[in-house]
Task: structure prediction
Amino acid sequence: MAPMSKRTRTLSLPALVVIVGSLLLAACGGGSSSKAATPTPMPARSGTYAVGHDTISIPDPATGKTITADLWYPAADGAQGSFARYSLLPTAYFDSKVAIEDAPLHGDGGFPFVVYSHGSGGQSFVASFLTEDLASHGYVVLSANHDGNTAADQLVGNSVSQDVNDFLRPNVVKAEIDWALAQSSGKDSAYPALKGAIDEARIGLVGHSYGGYTALATAGGHSGPAGTIAPDPRIKAVVGQAPYTRRLSDAELTGIKIPVMLMVGTKDTTTPLELDSQRPFDLITGPPVVLAVMTDAAHQSYTDVCMYLDEIPKLPDAPALVATAIKVQATEGCGPEFMSYARDMELSTGLTVAFLNEFLAGTPDASWFSGETSTISAPDITITIKR
Result:
């Protein structure tokens, strides 16, 4: 590959915050990069829409099973009600401070649509701070449990092989898209509240870890021992957070010709930059392809795990097994040696919203990702943009 010309701009941290926009200042206490305070801050929405939430069931044609998924959406102005409860188990849960359960959908309609894919051992609401915030910016967001690869599956020994997951995960995403578009178009009336809600020309994917593989494989296709996934031309943009990409070939990555942003922390030892983000950054066509490297962030910096670490012990009947599992996951991003969780949320959410606003929604906060290839540096993040 021929060397690319680069233009370097060094921005102060406040300047980066202004350009990225849409930051969780209420939850995060501003743009400080100081180490994590106790307790971990709960997120607040940064967009203008109220946020609604529902738990739904989707048929999966590939397996004949029913998929359980979480749905977030822009809610009607002034919507009121109980906040959503995200339950790992009936006695292990935390309550949203943002999403209103079963709130009526906002009447604007024609919203961009995002499917979120959780990582191995995760669950559909594992990044609620992000999915809620996307809904507050006018996105309909759907996130399914990847059966055979969830936290519950791992706890009870019900996991399936990686080869099978490689095939099933993108098929679940396709089923989510099919279901949502059928509801919005009126071809299916299982969930009539979504009728007219989605713009089928604006569909994007966001995935964490194995969900990063899932998003890229859905968009660009993948062949493996369990089957072949055809590229899905409906996908217009992808964000991979701490993405796991080693299962994708060079040719599969090169064939991805839509805007892609990859985010990774310098302390991520599960999907490190060198193994899982640098190669796809070099190979994916885009344009653009964005690589955001967050100093001292780690693998769980993009999930709710640090919130679980604070919230679950407050529940008197939470199983010790769940608390122990969360403590193990928390070693990958929660603690004074890592980027503060407040800053994790600020950067990962702000960048994701800004990227999707520009390349999916068509409502850029600023023409920040436009122009020639460049590197943008701030004290705790370096962002390289390839065109």
Notes: Residues 1-39 have pLDDT under 50 and may be disordered. DSSP finds eleven helices and 15 strands in the chain.
